[in-house]
Design a protein that fits this description.
single chain; 251 residues; alpha/beta; Rossmann fold; 2 domains; 11 strands
Length: 251
């Protein structure tokens, strides 16, 4: 088992098969939703942080959006560049920790997608990641956080789970720290006779916490939805789409 505080540095290369469980048509629908909600007309700029293998970055770029993808997992960025080249698309990729980006008033919109917040033990670091995204936006720019709903997790908590992702069997043993609102899991990736295991810790957020965090940073017009149909967030909402706007007229 791999035990380390910076678990995300080694975990995600082995996590790669999990992307295969999300159909491309779902990713395309989510990209269209972001185009609509964020006002991403052709030529607009979007910061995808972290971007992974380009699940959303690629369809956005195909729609004419100028995408910059940031990720700490270098193999993901290489795969994204390969896919973009094959499609004749231009995507800027940056190999960096989301807490270390240093953009200022650069992007029309930005996003942190598919439960990619809460990795850090110190809450100030999780907040810092959001602050960096806020700083990267142009005045009037919009931000989207797409993440699991902590209240859904508690209501539907299961200590064990498994599924197949292609040729890899994924097994999870979970516990939830109610005091710290943190999901602690042992992930095991089994492929034939090979097995790798990682201890993963992710701070999970309730909707009201995210509203408070967004507003404390400076976002206005903060709102959240449970689906691509803009349904309200409830206890039975597994995922949340939370939007905020940086004050000021868009230039």
């Amino acid at each position: 088992m791999i035990r380390e505080s910076k678990w995300w540095l080694n975990f995600f290369p082995d996590f790669r098969p999990i992307f295969g469980i999300k159909p491309q048509k779902v990713s395309n629908a989510e990209a269209r939703y972001l185009i609509k909600k964020l006002g991403l007309k052709p030529g607009r700029t979007f910061l995808d942080c972290p971007c992974g293998i380009g699940r959303i970055a690629l369809p956005l770029a195909k729609a004419g959006v100028k995408v910059t993808g940031v990720d700490v997992t270098l193999p993901y960025l290489k795969e994204l560049q390969t896919k973009a080249a094959r499609r004749g698309l231009k995507i800027t990729t940056v190999h960096k920790d989301m807490r270390r980006i240093d953009y200022h008033n650069k992007f029309h919109a930005a996003g942190n997608l598919w439960t990619s917040l809460g990795y850090f033990e110190r809450e100030s670091d999780n907040l810092l990641a959001l602050k960096k995204m806020y700083r990267a936006l142009k005045p009037g720019g919009k931000f989207i956080l797409h993440t699991m709903n902590r209240d859904w997790i508690v209501k539907n908590f299961e200590p064990n789970g498994w599924y197949d992702a292609g040729s890899v069997r994924v097994l999870e043993t979970r516990e939830f720290d109610l005091a710290k609102s943190t999901s602690r899991s042992l992930w095991r990736f089994v492929k034939g006779a090979d097995e790798k295991a990682y201890e993963v810790s992710i701070r999970m957020y309730s909707y009201h916490e995210l509203l408070e965090m967004f507003r404390s940073i400076g976002f206005v017009d903060v709102e959240g939805f449970a689906s691509l149909k803009d349904e309200p967030i409830k206890f039975d909402s597994r995922m949340m789409w939370v939007f905020g706007t940086k004050p000021g007229a868009r230039r």
